[in-house]
Design brief:
This protein has about 375 residues and is an alpha/beta fold. The chain has 2 domains: about 190 residues, Rossmann fold; about 170 residues, Glycogen Phosphorylase B (Rossmann fold, 3-Layer(aba) Sandwich). About 35% of the residues lie in helices and about 20% in strands. It is built from 13 helices and 13 strands. Helix 6 packs across helix 11. The protein starts with a strand and ends with a helix. The mean pLDDT is about 95.
């Protein structure tokens, strides 16, 4: 019997690559148990289809409208603008695509602009729905919900958002990380708090160029002994200016679209970055981190990580200057015990086996 899952997900500079990355990770894990995956993405995300196809999965693009969608109740919600059309039209196109695809066991949706209305409209016999969410700001009509984050009231925040029968997979124990993170975790040596190598990475897009700010902060430390790895995504709109900055700071290596980020995290003694999927990647490798949030949906998780002693959280990127960031870095360079404590707290939160746990749950549903 051919087993198949269908993913509905998008990515862009504004959305970032995190949603697509975690869906790809889950699709790759499902493939190891014989489940084929097909991705439904809107045409505006078509430039990233190669990332999906390169992993061996099929992509089908949903056509965007020729004119912006009218402002109606169908577009309600703070992330409605992530769709160039209404949720209703998106659901119609998804239903048509599902009819062409044929039998599928799961429809997996990871999209802040889609909610229970869309999920109900896409239902058909034999198809179960997994909703991947971080926000708990809208209702879902799904058999299973996954929120891999650590937030306040984590166990109860979806109580009124899903049905009583919905299976909830909550917390970083279900973090969807690529297998290389678990592999690098096994190779990890115990850090002693001394900082000789810093990793800068703000995700796949970094629209406000926080990478440049971090480079300026490190440059202000005037510590020639520091080695710095800078990772930016292929879609980073500031790539040329970042490259120019890197040339002005000693011992800096720039990676564009690095495919060895897990290894770079294991080698680093400290990281500078934001929230999102990378929070759990850093935790898996026990990497101390100085972090800012670059989107409102990152605040709750970063605050919870700070409460757990797993990150040094400075607040909104917009309010954190290069000077402030430099002071924070200096504080950890001068306090090895604190750096060790951050890494140990992070390491205890994520073991890198979350994808396997989610796959097992998808396979265990009757």
């Amino acid at each position: 019997m051919n087993r198949q899952a269908v993913f509905r997900v998008d990515a862009s500079v504004e959305m970032g690559l995190g949603h697509l990355t975690r869906c790809l990770t889950l699709a790759n894990a499902l493939a190891s148990s014989g489940v084929r995956s097909r991705f439904l993405m809107r045409s505006h995300a078509g430039g990233l289809a190669h990332l999906v196809e390169g992993s061996g999965h099929a992509v089908q693009l949903l056509p965007d409208p020729s004119a912006p969608a009218p402002e109606t109740d169908d577009r309600a919600g703070p992330h409605a603008h992530w769709l160039p059309t209404t949720w209703r039209q998106d659901a119609e196109q998804t239903r048509s695509a599902l009819a062409e695809i044929g039998p599928a066991e799961w429809l997996i949706v990871d999209h802040y602009a889609l909610d229970a209305r869309w999920e109900r409209a896409c239902r058909r016999e034999g198809l179960r729905i997994l909703a991947i969410d971080d926000l708990a700001d809208r209702d879902h009509d799904c058999e299973m919900l996954l929120d891999q984050n650590l937030v306040l009231h984590m166990k109860t925040r979806y109580r009124d958002r899903v049905s009583a029968g919905c299976v909830q997979l909550l917390g970083p124990g279900y973090a969807l990380l690529r297998p290389e993170f678990a592999a690098q975790r096994r190779l990890r040596a115990q850090r002693d708090g001394r900082i000789g190598r810093i990793l800068i990475c703000f995700g796949g897009s970094d629209p406000t160029n926080e990478t440049a700010k971090a480079l300026q902060a490190i440059g202000s430390l005037a510590m020639s002994r520091l080695a710095v790895d800078v990772v930016i995504g292929q879609t980073n709109p500031h790539a040329d200016s970042v490259e120019a900055l890197c040339r002005g700071v000693p011992n800096v290596e720039l990676y564009r679209g690095a495919n060895n980020i897990a290894e770079l995290m294991r080698r680093a003694d400290l990281s500078v970055g934001a929230g999102g999927v990378m929070s759990w990647e850093r935790c898996c490798l026990g990497l101390p981190a100085v972090v800012v949030h670059i989107a409102a949906n990152q605040i709750g998780t970063l605050a919870a990580l700070a409460d757990a002693g797993a990150v040094l959280y400075l607040g909104s990127a917009a309010s954190v200057s290069a000077e402030t960031l430099g002071h924070a870095l200096r504080s950890l360079l001068d306090d090895s015990a604190r750096a060790v404590a951050l890494g140990k707290a992070a390491f205890a939160l994520v073991d890198g086996e979350g994808s396997g746990r989610v796959c097992a749950m998808l396979g265990s549903r009757p």
